[in-house]
Automatic annotation (TrEMBL):
Listed Pfam families: YqeY (PF09424)
A GO molecular function held by the record: carbon-nitrogen ligase activity, with glutamine as amido-N-donor
Classification via InterPro entries: Asn/Gln_tRNA_amidoTrase-B-like, GatB_Yqey_C_2, YqeY/Aim41, YqeY/Aim41_N
Lineage top rank: taxon: Bacteria
Name by which UniProt lists this protein: GatB/YqeY domain-containing protein
Organism: Leptospira meyeri
Length: 151
């Protein structure tokens, strides 16, 4: 079952259960998926494309919750955090820093990289290895810089 189908199934379940938080969140996600489908003209998005929508929405809600906290609006912040938790159900566990570090070191050895000029090659290799997984590109960049400057 694709991620898009899973979201549609869970939307129906939330509708029957009258779970307003899940229902509202999934409706917004589905609307963004529909927008992308209309924009691209495809009949279904790839799991990677749906994952990008989910990650973007998750980040947006976390950032908005922080802003609501700063504005002393805990009621709205809690709502954003609850919606972020719903989205998090569909995002795979983030790749650990240890796994990224190991992959960076392997890529450096494999590519015989030895300086900042090889940063792009190392980044490309590591990101390709974890394609489709939840990986933070800024962590990869940071660890690759550290490893390349040490070599």
């Amino acid at each position: 079952m694709t991620l898009q189908e899973t979201i549609n199934t869970d939307l129906k379940t939330a509708l029957k259960a009258k779970d307003e938080t899940v229902l509202g969140t999934l409706r917004l996600i589905k609307a963004e998926i529909q927008y992308e489908l209309t924009k691209t003209g495809a009949s279904e998005l790839t799991d990677t494309a749906v994952m990008q929508i989910l990650k973007s929405n998750f980040k947006r809600r976390k950032d908005t919750a922080v802003e609501y906290d700063k504005a002393n609006r805990p009621d709205l912040s809690v709502k954003e955090i609850q919606e972020a938790e719903v989205i998090l159900r569909y995002i795979p566990k983030e790749v650990s820093e240890e796994e990224i570090s190991k992959a960076v070191n392997e890529a450096i050895v494999e590519l015989n990289a030895n300086g900042a000029q090889d940063m792009g090659k190392v980044m490309g290799k590591v990101m390709a290895k974890f394609k489709g997984q939840n990986i933070d590109g800024s962590k990869v960049s940071s660890l690759a810089k550290q490893a390349l400057s040490a070599s």
